[in-house]
Design a protein that fits this description.
By secondary structure, the chain is α/β, with parallel strands linked by helices. The chain contains 28 helices and 15 strands. The protein has three domains: 99 residues, no CATH class; 140 residues, no CATH class; 460 residues, Metal-dependent hydrolases (TIM Barrel), CATH 3.20.20. A five-stranded parallel beta sheet has the order 5-8-9-10-11, sandwiched between helices. α1 packs across α3 and α15 packs parallel to α17. The radius of gyration is 30 Å and the shape is globular. It is an enzyme of class 3 (hydrolase). Its EC number is 3.5.4.6. Pathway: Purine metabolism; IMP biosynthesis via salvage pathway; IMP from AMP: step 1/1. GO terms for molecular function: AMP deaminase activity; metal ion binding.
Length: 882
Amino acid sequence: MENPGEPSIPARHESPDEGLSPPADYHELVEEKLLAHHQGSQDGGPQTGVTRSRASSFAPGSLKLERTVPEFERLTVIPPPDEQAQKDGIARSQAWLHTNFLAPHLSTEDQGEIMSEIQADHGSSPAPALTPELKELYSSLQRCLELRDKYMSVSLQRLGDDPRHYDSDNSGGVMPGDSDSNHPRLKPWKTYPPPPPPHWKFKPHNASAPEISHTQDGDVPFDFSSCEIPGDKYMSVSLQELGDDPRHYDGEAAGGAMPEGSSSNPPRFKPWKIYPPPPPPHWRLKPHNASAPEITHTQDGDVPFDFSSCEIPNGMPWEWKIDEKGIFQVYEDISVPDSRPLFDIPTIKDFFVDLDTVLNIVADGPTKSFAFRRLKYLSSKWQMYTLLNEYQELADMKRVPHRDFYNLRKVDTHVHHSSMMNQKHLLRFIKHKIKHYPDDKVIVRDGKELTLREVFESLNLTAYDLSIDTLDMHAHQEAFHRFDKFNLKYNPIGESRLREIFMKTDNYIQGRYLAELTQEVMADLEQSKYQNCEWRISIYGRSSAEWDKLAKWIVHNKLYSHNVRWLVQIPRLYDVYKANGTIGNFADLLHNIFVPLFEVTKDPSTHPELHVFLQRVVGIDCVDDESKPERRIYRKFPYPKDWNTPQNPPYSYWMYYMFANMASLNHWRQARGFNTFVFRPHSGEAGDTDHLAAAFLTAHSISHGILLRKVPALQYLFYLKQIGLAMSPLSNNALFLAYERNPLPEFFKIGLNVSLSTDDPLQFHFTKEPLLEEYSVAAHIYKLGQSGLAELARNSVIQSGFEMEAKRHWIGKKWYLPDAAGNDINKTNVPDKRLAFRHNTLMEELKLIYSNQDAPIAPRSSLTSQLDTSADTVAVQAMAMG
């Protein structure tokens, strides 16, 4: 029976860290040493026979921050030397001794003396050697992480790879072959028009910039003629180097030089101007009697740009072609015999070999058990943290002036453009058009033009008859696990012609109604100021002209907003297009999707509107119903030109070809100083969990990911790599998973990089501010505190594709740094200690995987300094000991 007067020592079979329990006579020995130590201190005499030994900080693997590119820091783990094991054993023993027994007033040296005598009597307690099973398990997890890093490096999706990520505060690396180390690789990205001074424009004192005329409310008009476009000269890009994005130079620090013409006479960097610029505070609140310059046509209060005065970059000599494997390859001179592509893109064979490696690892029994236990440990560790720090976090947040949940920057990282509004907004818009513009010719049927009045007369409806129930666009119970019925909800009143009239960009009225709806929603976002969106708009791949039509629709309708960026989504509808004869094989679809992008990268003058539109595009999505069954009709997948069957290619096949061609495109765009794209597909909403493995290798971040709850090993890998998850619990509740069963709160506790998004406000939300509605429901059902909501909002900004300049203003100048160093509580309202806990916990897990040691029991912090033994501190140390 355990003596209640003595500290409890965990039994070997109860502890996950076997071999770390103290010897049986540990307590008696410690009492002897304490008594001798106290006696010696009272007598004032030296303590003989004592060897001073300072225990090293517990660090199975030391960490190194590699600064390949200034301030963008990547974690690498250095394996410990062999002699580190003995030091680790001493440190672990000291940690156990202090936490369980030693008096709090003892200094570090005193503790070291006692530990030295104990070690002399009982020998060191080295860290236990790993079992062969654990060695193999750690090695397999390391292999998965390395594969993820390889694919992110190849596709230029990391922070710092996109030219938009450089704002002259981060000068980038050195141009290959440039002897001057002061020459950065890329010109600072300028988002045009620039943010209005002095609100949040960080401009170097010695930097010259073109004069910009501001309107009375401080906003800068959209004048395309002033747009800064990278020049003709391009840099030589190495695939292994960390990429640089000119868009992320914001003028906070003086820029370097862009190699253009002679390197001996380089031009100065100019801060990238966000276009249009974010307005100053209260920009929409103008006095009623204020005079303003007369504007003939405005877009949300901004002066529209003049496209005819726009300067477009010239072409460059590089060429491209599609190889026999379906990959768009870039060549310096395609006419040279045996010329090789400039960029090395993984082959489809490499991809499926790597995918099989990941799938085999995550399906391995010991790996699943290990990951499950670590995830449970992380969740429990978070509960301990909240119990100890909840009130302190609240006190820290109360000390922050002005900032609260309502004025935190939030980004809706997953919302489809065609359903961006709520039902009431759409109903009001339709009624307005029927009442005031009934004679608009809106559609052609059987060769006859029909007016809006005639369309509704054919439906036996008037404006008075319309209601929310009549529209019937909300996803109710009948859509649960019925994605086919959900797709029908995009048709107002169940009529596809109304969808064509009001919700399409390419129709008889050239998308005018949808453009007006978009402008109204943009105005609402700008009025709210703190809510931002990344709308996903479709390119189907039926024709290569789709890109130009979409870009012209965006540019000519002036659909630019400070609060909006775009993603392009590619629906996986090959089987539909093949059935109706639109395309002949999968290569035709890839041709229609990527040819315009490579053409505009080679020579922007061939697609000027597309070049302008792509500056606001941050990524590519691949979307469709994941629950559709995938039948393996080939033992070995054919290349796209040979995929001519009616069967839709599997998810992983789509993912590879979207990823590979985007990677090749990114390298070329980066070389020209144009912005690059990231891959952010839908994954893990339904269907096969193998989809998540393909996304793990290829995607920058994903939407949904709720099926990770079924694959603990893959969930653990997503945690270790901090892959973004844009989760939509209200959407999942209507389609696939009840709200209370959604894994979002558990993912959040574990420490996955999760954010809240709306998906389809038209189908799932009721209020004018659907993103706030999403936060509100989650806060109530999942009992999220104010600090939790603030952390989710911060995650959404980090996951988003907004320029570095915007992110600096929204969440802090050094937001990309780990730990509390990257946090500005005055902007994020997230307590520093919360982010420090998140980072320290992640580092402990990475050290566990890379150090080839068993799970540690010692606290992460150094034990050579005086340890606080207050109740809370001891509890935190116990928590860190696992």
